[in-house]
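Q: Structure tokens for this one, please.
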Amino acid sequence: MKLASLQAAEKKLVLQTYDRNPKLFTGGHGVHLRDEAGVEYLDLLSGIGVCALGYGHPAIEKAIAEQSTKLLHVSNLFYQEHTAPLALKLTEMTGLDRVFFCNSGTEAWEAALKLARAHATTLRSEGKRIGTKVLALEYSFHGRTMGAVATTHKAKYREPFEPVMPGVEFIPFNDVAALRKAFNWEVCAVAVEVLQGEGGIRPISKEFLAAARELCSSTGALLLADEIQSGMGRTGKWCAYQHYGITPDVVTLAKPLAGGLPMGALLCTEEAARAMHPGMHGTTFGGGPLVCSVALAVIDAIEKENILAHVTEVGDYFLAQLHALAKKHSAIIDVRGTGLMLGIELNSDELAKSVAAQMLDRNIIINRTSETVLRFLPPYILQRQHVDTAITALDSLLTSNANAGAVLAGEHTHG
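A: Here is the predicted structure, written as tokens:
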């Protein structure tokens, strides 16, 4: 089917939850996607942070091909050969003790919220004083399920579905005093993204994360870290919290975990894990043989190809070029991020929307988040020449938009 017929069919048949760009992609290789006409696009979004090793990576293709001839699904009522090896890898990478496998980031976060409540129930049964409240942060985004959306700050994600899960209070981002004021025995968890994604590439401060860790440790509340977008090497370390030297009680991973196949994971400490027992939580498809085998291949490739160091090196270069661009263009009011999770905040939502669209016209894929932020989540295999291509295009577009704005302002002045 061609684009026009697909658009017509989807308009009639598919629930309208996405405002899709009018592009039909049919293939890809490396850091490029290819459309139906064979035109290549530099992908600086990687499926919203999913395709960490780009497209057509031989390790992923090999793992899919081999496992697809063996076993796709067996259910979690039985053992399969890849679960324990992957769990071992993830616990070694994160410094946590146990893993729960699922299908997506929001499912992993839902499990984290359930674990926090279950852990508090366990503590109460042991005579400790602890409640059920969750403290979350402004600008946060944790997913689309009813629990995840309850801890997601932006009203447009929550209000159509109210009442959502009760017992959530939002704290101003990086406001340590507000956190200390809100925290008490009623709190069972503090929920953070160490580097906020949908919220506009906002890094948590060392002071805030340290205070959250201290407060949780003082009562037995759990510190929940959503690393769905920032984890699995995106910032140059396996998880963004590893830049801070502070370990959470619970971590959620997803997006790049299985290189493009749907997979999520919750990791937790032994202390948190003791609240869960057989039958309390589960998943039909989570942690199946195919996705686990591919996730192992992704981790193996990242290690063998020394990709974490590469993410740091090319990410530092990308960040430096964005800072240089900001010195040239007053429309850029901030540059943020770490590794290959970067963003530039522009001075208007209309400009950000326009530049993102014009970049697509130039065959470069980025997106706009938090209205005014241009977000870059490229594959980890990005090279400096790809960064240069993007910076040149951004420079040109910001210049032309500024010139157009100046002309328009002049017309208004002299009109």
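A few notes: The radius of gyration is 22 Å. DSSP finds 14 helices and 17 strands in the chain.
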